Amino acid sequence: MSANKACNQKRGKLVVVSGPSGAGKTSICNELLRILPNARWSVSVTTRAPRGQERDGEAYSFVSRDEIQRMIAAGELLEHAEYLGQIYGTPLKPVEDAVARGEIVVMEIDVQGGAQVAERVPDSVRIFVLPPTMYTLKARLEGRQTESETLQQKRLNEADGEIAFARNSGHYQYFVTNDILDETVARVLDIIKKEQDQACSTHS
Ligand code: 5GP
Predict the structure, then answer these.
(1) What are the structural domains of the chain?
(2) In this structure, are residues 111 and 127 in contact, taking their beta carbons and an 8 Å threshold?
(3) Is pTM beyond 0.90 here?
(4) Cα of 2 to ligand 1 centre, how many Å?
(5) How does pLDDT run across 75-131, given as a tens digit for each residue?
(6) Sign of CA dihedral 160, 117, 174, 139
(7) Which of 17, 36, 78, 131 is 20 to 30 A (C-alpha) from 103?
(8) Percent helix, strand and coil across the chain, each rounded to 5?
(9) Residue 24: CB atoms within 10 Å
(10) Which of 16, 29, 44 most suits a substitution to test ligand 1, by most atoms within 8 Å of the C-beta?
């Protein structure tokens, strides 16, 4: 076995995937989890109501505002942010435990959260997913049957600000345009591999 292979198996990695609603983050993350044997999903807590078929404890744990505020005060969250009036956050302990076990932790979070992770975990990989065009983004959001038109419009209105923030903040090392899903996933897999190899050469 090569030194690099042995190293890869030991070192965990935090992979942050951000991007405007409708850019295809969830599809990309699902593919990463399907393809990478040692990847695991970071289950966020949120005050927003379940959407469609979402079940508690899968994509999200659905909690009250009081409970999230308690978690924030107790330092139990790695990061948190308010998005369209709802609070979202990443529980710290499961992430720490998984990285310590050498796993790749996939986090789908907004740009405010991405900024906090960049500060707290500088060796995390931060990837921002762009739609091919704003028209595609609109069409993808409208294709969702699980939300009101008002909410879809609000999400679309957020997109420009999120993209500008991601570009100007310097917190994202990678920008990938999600046109064809398989190609985007291949690109993200390359990024993760490259980052792991770099971590190996810096730490070994
Ligand atoms: P949605 O309501 O569509 O599931 O998510 C809305 C936004 O919140 C998306 O940009 C999503 O990436 C983000 N989000 C989901 N979980 C978290 C989290 O734990 N922390 C932060 N900061 N954002 C999150």
Answers:
(1) 2-42+103-203 (3.40.50.300)
(2) no
(3) yes
(4) 38
(5) 999 999 999 999 999 999 999 999 999 999 999 999 999 999 999 999 999 999 999
(6) negative
(7) 131
(8) 50, 20, 30
(9) 25
(10) 44
